[in-house]
Amino acid sequence: MAYVESRNRATSDPETRKEVLAEIESRGIEDVLLWFTDLEGHLKSFSITRSEVEGALDDGMGFDGSSITGFNAIEESDMVAIPDPETFRVLPDGRTARMICDVVTPDGKIYDTDRIMYLRNYLAQLQRATAEGVPVRGYFLWSLMDNFEWGDGFEQRFGLYHVDFNTKRRTPKLSASFYRETIARNAVA
Q1: 157 lies in which domain range?
Q2: Which residues of the chain have pLDDT under 70?
Q3: What is the pLDDT of residue 42?
Q4: 6: in domain
Q5: pTM, whole model, 2 decimals?
Q6: Less Cβ around it within 10 Å: N or C end of the chain?
Q7: How many angstroms separate the CA atoms of 124 and 136, rounded?
Q8: How buried is residue 82: exposed, middle or buried, by Cβ count under 10 Å (0-12/13-18/19+)?
Q9: Which residue stretches of the chain are H helix?
Q10: Torsions phi, psi of 31, nearest 5?
Q11: Count of domains forming the chain
């Protein structure tokens, strides 16, 4: 695992983290898979032991990001997977569990690769349509920031900017950079 300085990055509910730790202990879970997607949307994961889970829930778990498709530069090799305890599930073997993670840089920038792939594919089709003469007058991206949604409350996060709902701090995700660069070029690269 890559060494990444501790920064207390978790924004999940501390009580939910405690519940996950208690369930891991009571069920005798041996390993927890931390799941995330690469730039092309392929599922990636790595395993941590029961003794590493508390630290991962509080601060994330460092890993070598050069193995993520699309992020091979040396400056992007240190990455942090921050598990979402709300996604904790025990797998059918009964000894292994999984949690879905946000991937961030050590300084906290979120690598939301699934959103980038969605935007890239959608905007490429929009670009194709305009090239074929479809009169597109504009495009509205939902949503600029993570926010309250009537159906899901604060659970679903799909803004270009991550919002820490406790501190109101807004942090641009990688998709914000992608979208800004796409707008500047007026084309999908």
Answers
A1: 113-185
A2: 1-8, 39, 69-76, 154-155
A3: 80
A4: no
A5: 0.70
A6: C
A7: 13
A8: buried
A9: 14-27, 50-59, 113-131, 174-185
A10: -135, 150
A11: 2
